[in-house]
Design a protein that fits this description.
The protein is α/β, with parallel strands linked by helices. The protein has one domain. 39% of the residues lie in helices and 15% in strands. Helix 7 packs across helix 8 and helix 9 runs antiparallel to helix 10.
Amino acid sequence: MAVKVNHVWFGDNPLGALEKFNVYTWRALGHEVTIYAHRWNGTSHDEASLGLSGSGVKVENLSTILAEDDNKRTETLPETRALLKWWIEATNKEKPLETDVIYNLVDLTKSYIGGTCQGIVLDLKVGPSPHLAAYEDVFQRKFVSYSRGGNTVAPENQCIGTMQEADTLRGKYAARFELKVTGNLDGQRGLRSTPAERHFGLITSFHGQGFIAAKPNIDVAIQAPDGGAVGQYEVKEIRRPGHGPFRVFKASEDQTNKSSAEKTTPEEVLELCLYVWDNELEGKNVPNEKFLDNVKEALKALSG
């Protein structure tokens, strides 16, 4: 079964080498990829502008969606949609000077997409693990997220969504998330009037509460497909093993809200990418071998 992977990209430039490495890995393994993109000047991204010509990746421009979308996304998350649109308009078609604004926008968008669209929203630093196939069935029956780095009690928003075709689980998630957004829109430090303040931690907590509400659910970093111990689903990652259907190309302790944590180095990322290429891609008879050349190009760019 092909997994629908949804990514979010805020920026004028093409994707970086690691992002391309992961996107082309997903494509080589036969999965669908959609990128919800936003350029600061309001013009549209496409495959070419993202550096993904011929990839078969679907590009959805967020400005177009917010301006024209009159389907279930409007009905399901009206205040979230309005807030996202307001924050984007507040940038005045220029890249914000405050990094927190970008983090806020990305995190709000991830929950907006995860609560309205079929598929799994993943950060672009996340790729497939060798255990993905073992989880594909549960992706259709449960709402998916994962815990990393011990920052929150509930799973974090690096991973959001479900492959369930019906909106049952997405609806549960969206209803809870919308309730939390609505309750925090106004006031002295309300979300609506303070787009430049640090809200991404709060948005992550909204996601966690939405995940808890969207039962049945699964935290794939600590649960096997049957809900039991995840030990046999070990994944090679940076500094220490992870678990589950995904691989994260960033140390688990290297989190945005942990300024004192030792940052992931380019050398660590390259080493892990080389491991994936040598052990899981090259010569492994993947479904879409034509994309292996693109993976290799991204690998060369990473190596400098």
